[in-house]
Design brief:
By secondary structure, the protein is an alpha/beta fold. It is built from twelve helices and 16 strands. It has helices at 2-26, 31-38, 42-55, 118-133, 173-176, 187-198, 259-262, 264-273, 283-292, 300-321, 337-350, 374-391, and strands at residues 28-30, 58-61, 75-78, 84-90, 94-100, 106-113, 141-148, 151-153, 158-162, 167-171, 182-186, 208-213, 217-223, 226-227, 325-330, 361-363. Bound molecules: zinc ion. Zinc ion binds at residues 240, 250, 252, 254, 257. It holds the Pfam family ROK.
Length: 392
């Protein structure tokens, strides 16, 4: 008897989770469409929506839309402010903080230069998040969701290692909040989650590698629809794959890592050593300045360097993981169409015969800056996913 009760509770929960997922995906919809998309009985959908309306997860919107048999259909709209989170993008040079909304969008509220010591960083972070917390009603607050430019133990919410900043085995939970959840993930994994959620072209795909190019390079790996993290959470650290035994020294202590050739820092260093003056207050901005000037002849060697250096790593990813698609993100999501074509050409001329040599490399559809930065969006989605069972 008890088991039967538990079963029906679980079914009810999974139905509610499914309907909420569809609402969050479609933003504006109708009960009828939700029933069709979920395969649930219309009366079940009506009951669930009644609960959601009471809980404030969605609103009814009066509308002139009519369904097929001429009745007025009442539209439902997701309440994007039903639950809020504080999202943090820890960048090697700059950290941004904003609000994450229930539809997975974000807004950036403040930014600061990332201090290199963890103690100083947490101090500034707590000050900045405290200001934002004052404006969020407590009953709507989901917690803190943080994007980390390094390895993360997702279960323990522990930063395992950030090579660029030298942080090892540190927790943000203790200083940030004892009361609310603090969830963390790697920036490339979060970007992949965001891309998968927002890009309809990826909807049917399960094997995806998201290459996040910033001051370093991190990769989000999805295999069979699941993020692959590895035993010690270092699975996506393809930026530290050795591509030249005696190459430049890397932050990780090794030399000749892929990111010492293809990260924004590496490309900017190359530009500056040839005497080019670049606009921007950090390496990512300077990298974008190079891309903006791609048609000028004095920049062409840098565009070629970007194409070749990214292609080297992507060939190795394809030969190791054989994904359905490679998504270029971070600052590399802005590379010009022509450069992307040439890069894809290099990749396909070098990958193994078995891959069919028709690998698709595409740019992330999410901008790298401001409101729609991929890892921030991923952070907003991540905490909703982790907490969804608490409010359905
Ligand atoms: Zn390295």
């Amino acid at each position: 008897m008890i088991n039967r009760k538990l079963d029906s509770e679980n079914i009810g929960k999974s139905n509610r989770r499914l309907v909420l997922q569809l609402l969050r995906k479609n933003l504006i919809t109708t009960r009828r469409d939700l029933a069709a998309a979920s395969g649930l009985n219309p009366s079940t959908v009506t009951k669930i929506i009644r609960e959601f309306l009471v809980a404030g997860l969605c609103n009814e919107v009066s509308t002139e839309v009519t369904d097929r048999i001429g009745r007025k259909a009442i539209e439902l709209r997701l309440n994007r402010k039903a639950y809020l989170s504080i999202v943090v993008d820890i960048g090697v040079e700059e950290t941004s903080i904003g609000k994450g909304y229930f539809d997975g969008t974000t807004s950036i509220i403040s930014s600061f230069k990332t201090p290199s010591t963890f103690e100083e960083f947490t101090k500034v972070l707590v000050e900045n998040t405290g200001e934002i917390m004052k404006k969020i009603p407590k009953y709507k607050f989901l917690g803190y969701s943080i994007s980390v430019p390094g390895m993360v133990d997702v279960e323990q919410s522990k930063i395992v290692y950030v090579p660029h900043l030298g942080w090892k085995d540190v927790f943000l939970k203790d200083s940030l909040s004892k009361r609310y959840p603090v969830v963390l993930d790697n920036e490339a994994n979060l970007s992949l989650i965001a891309e998968k959620w927002n890009n309809p072209d990826l909807a049917g795909l399960g094997d995806i590698v998201f290459v996040y190019v910033s001051e370093g390079i991190g990769c989000g790996i999805m295999l069979g629809g699941q993020i692959h993290r590895g035993r010690d959470y270092s699975a996506g650290e393809i930026g530290h794959m050795t591509v030249q035994l005696d190459g430049p020294k890397c932050y990780c202590g090794n030399s000749g890592c892929w990111e010492t050739f293809a990260s924004s820092e590496a490309i900017v260093r190359k530009a500056q050593s040839s005497g080019l003056e670049l606009k921007g207050s950090n390496n990512n901005e300077r990298y974008l300045d190079i891309l903006k000037n791609h048609e000028k002849s004095e920049y062409s060697f840098l565009i070629e360097e970007i194409e070749k250096s990214l292609a080297v790593g992507i060939v190795n990813i394809v030969n190791s993981l054989d994904p359905e698609v490679i998504v270029l993100g971070g600052v590399a999501s802005m590379i010009p169409e022509e450069a992307l074509k040439r890069l894809t050409g290099i990749v396909n001329s070098k990958v193994l015969y078995a891959t069919g040599q028709n690998i698709e490399v595409r740019r992330s559809i999410l901008d790298t800056h401001g409101k729609t930065s991929s890892n921030m969006i991923g952070a907003a989605l991540h905490i909703i996913e982790r907490r969804v069972d608490d409010f359905i």
